[in-house]
Amino acid sequence: MNNTTFALPLNLEPDQASPAWMSKGDNAWQLTAATLVGLQSVPGLIILYAFMALYAFACVLVCWVLWGYRKSFGDELFVPFLGTPNFALDEKFLFKQAFSGKFPHATMVYFQFVFAAITLILIAAALLGRMNFYAWMLFVPLWLTFSYTIGAFTIWSNNGFLYKLGIIDYSGGFVIHLSSGVAGFTAAYWVGSRLTKDRERFPPNNILLMLTGAGFLWMGWTGFNGGDPYSVNVDASLAVLNTHVCTATSLLTWVMLDVYFFGKASIIGTIQGMITGLVCIAPAAGVVQGWAAIIMGVCSGSIPWFTMMIIHKKSKLLQMVNDTMAVLHTHAIAGCPGGILTGLFAEPKLNNLFFNSYGDYVGLFYGFEMGNFKAGFRQMGIQLLGILFIVKLNIVITSMICILVQFVVPLRMSDEDTEIGDEAAHNEEAYAIWGQGEKLGKLRHEAAVYNDIESSVTKSRAIGQVEMT
Fold first, then answer.
1. Same domain, 386 and 438
2. What pTM, to 2 d.p., does this model score?
């Protein structure tokens, strides 16, 4: 018998910095995937949403390492939808193997942070143009703590009750997109509407910048879905391909509907179709076949189109609530079909690759094929329960946070500041034209003088009336 031993290459040998349990390839991909997701926010959504996004990105990171990560993925706190808050800053914790994958907690903290950050940034899209920035500063850490971490723990943590039931949320269709869509719409209700003239006409400042942000969003989704197997494996490859197939199909569906009903394809509409495709495939990316990704793309390009272009114009509730960037349609309404269709098309073999459990995650379609009707209907029921849980959670928690914040600072900017815009909120102009600031200063001075005169006249009249009496 040959007892020949082989030495590993020096770059693969375990050492203090590369313990035996860690895969250098998986760790490298996870850091890359996280950075791709981060690029969706910085600069992707910053190009679209500006300062509110930048603040949220930074604020979420600090809160995440102080208490958010371990509250989302740590030990259970009394009930199976609350995690125990704790620091994620010490090397004794950060250098240990993460709860899943062959890489350390430090990598997982970074990867999960960019998902938490983009969720808050998506909420900002519903509130653009009128939310008081100081109210936003309070809203971000409160919502992260009392809404996002609960959803993440319940659905993604090994200790969460929906995770234990067997919900399938491959990459955040529930935790991120449904949450942000419902929370954004709810917060928009409490904050109130933009000025009437802004609602009547709201063109993009710069089409090229908008396309740039959309491009970062689409390509960044490679990391968004491709990083969720926590491994450089065939499931990650499938997730990436399904992501782009569904998105392309959704985009084309939206364009065809625009052309058929309105005679023209708009760039803004095309981007909406792109986003709804990305959202819809998120809960299913690595657990469905390619043909299912195409069906999901058709649904994500048509159902949100119908709610946005037809139902929205006829609904008094949707007209009353001013969701600036239509996050309800592009994320909540696109996320619901995504979660439901995942329960329909989830393939047991692919679920085994992702969950390492065969027969416990069976889409309804395959339940009929296998003769296991009970498993298929059970999966659909769990998916619907997840939708119901996330919707109720975000309506209640977001409302409570908005009510609490408005006791500290106004939720909404004043009409005067809203009309002025960035210069009033941040003493800066987004698009500064030479001499414009000076003119604006004169106009504001003249308005102040006029108000003083009007106030003096009103007081004089009041005094005169008193004297006559």
1. no
2. 0.86
